[in-house]
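User: My collaborator sent over this chain with a note saying "see what the structure looks like." That's all I know about it. Can you take a look?
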Amino acid sequence: MTADKARRRAIRARSPHSPALLEGYLNLSRAVKRVKLPRALSEKVSLAVQEWIGCGTCMQAHIEAGRTAGLSEADIALARQGTSTDAREAALIAVAVRVLAEPSSLTDADVAELRAHGWSDRIIVEIVGVVALNFLTGAFSLLVGLQPGERPA
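Assistant: Without extra context I'll predict from the sequence alone. Here is the result:
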């Protein structure tokens, strides 16, 4: 079982008191799997966001997924710092971190900059979903005390 599947299983096992939240989480998770963001870049965004959130379980899962998607150790380290060697990717990752950490600071100029780097409006909007899923998963995992490497019963 992959770390991501184990994490989803743990969330399902620990959230029977809120069927509505569980349903929303599962629907968001399915929706984010359909985004047009390349998998390796999605993992870079997730690594940057999870660095801010501080969920070790999520970080472990995204490091594993990033490696599977072809990221090098240098790519992973840079993503955890919120950047990339590719200027286009770095711009998108930086905005993703701001979506999490300071969303009220985002302006039309930020969107224009992403467009200037060649990002479509679809990707710009979908980055919010990737960040939201990471926040929900990370916050929930931290709240219930899910530890890296833990496998639910």
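A starting point for your reply to your collaborator: The longest helix spans residues 121-143.
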